[in-house]
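In line with agreed milestones, the collection of sequences with tokenised folds has grown. One record among many is set out beneath this paragraph:
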Amino acid sequence: MRLKLVIFILMIPIFIFGSEFYTLDELLQGALENNTTLKQANLNLQIARAGLHSSRVNYLPDLSAGIGRREDLENDQTLHTANFSVEHRIALNYDAYFQNRNARHDLNSAQIQSEIQRQNVIFNIIRNYITVLENQKRLALQEENIRIQENIVTESNLLFRQQRITQFDVQQSEINLLNARISAHRARMNLNDSRTRLFELVNITDEGKELADVELYTDFEIETFERELDFDQILRVMAQNETVNRHRTNITRTRLDFFPQVNLRYDFNRTLSSEDLAFDHRRTDHTVSLNLSYSLNRLFRNHFSHRQALYLREHHDLNTSQLLRDITLEFNQHKEELSLLYQLNQLQRSRVAQTTQNLAMAQQRFRLGLVTQLEIDKVALEHLNSQIDLQENHYALILKKLQIDHLLSNPLHNN
């Protein structure tokens, strides 16, 4: 019992203050629940789904029922009636069929657009999250740079008093310190701006906690990051194809308008009547009719409607071709940039390894009295700059892979 009480007491700060970090999954979940764009996309999806259900109702026959009372003033007679009727019409160019097809296209487009919006939100949040992480670490490294520059200034002043360096060297070290402070201030401003953009996307209040690091694309070997263009799986292409299919449906409809109007109609009518509400007089009518007609005015009107539909289809076919070319070009460009970033990453890793080794040698020489603190600080600064460059390239590689996956409509949050 005492053990449980101790555990509960230790957990109280966690319950009260919560986690010390924001996590990517936490912000993604908040965005999927609170993002206004996603809410609008979901409403558009519901509207399209309601439109499809509404179009399906048009397949049903028209049903009607009613009651009435008729007064014959000349014969002083009252007649009560009740009737029920069923009417249904089928035509060669059946409106209900094409309304249903278009509603299905609209629903498919809404579903695709909803998924596009969801993936855009996920991509933008991950991209901004990584930008904040990069700015967090850049700020930490810049603050370390300030500490090194302050040591250099202190050591420079000491060497100047010993007349081992000139006033110019002291002023140069002070300028470097100012530059370091300016860089740190810019890093802090960039961090604030990136956090603002991130939490505007998530649509939650920023409590000022740091962001936890993420494990994305931990294997940086470029040979393991193989992606192929599959246009059938790219959402932007799917959305464009759905638009083209909708116009093809309209072309089919305009072509049918050139044929004579053929209508098949069935009517069922059941009427009950009486003078005393007994409804003992009954009458049932069944009617089947077939009508064939042709309008010359409609022929000219349909001619221009059909030409317009053909032009629209050609226009969207050109848009599809251009979209495929743009995606292919963008994909190849991303792959080339990824290869260059990977090569740069290899060079920067070698640079960090060299500066790390150089710093260790300088520290050993300092312990032997062969170099001054000033020289060690300069070597440490070079090592720090190599780490900053490597860190920037590290996040640039992640973002480039994210861009490729986003272009190909791959699920980003599972990588």
In short: Residues 23-63+101-262+297-414 form a domain with the Outer membrane efflux proteins (OEP) fold (CATH 1.20.1600.10). The radius of gyration is 38 Å. DSSP finds eight helices and six strands in the chain. The beta strands are 21-22, 62-72, 77-91, 210-211, 261-274, 281-293.
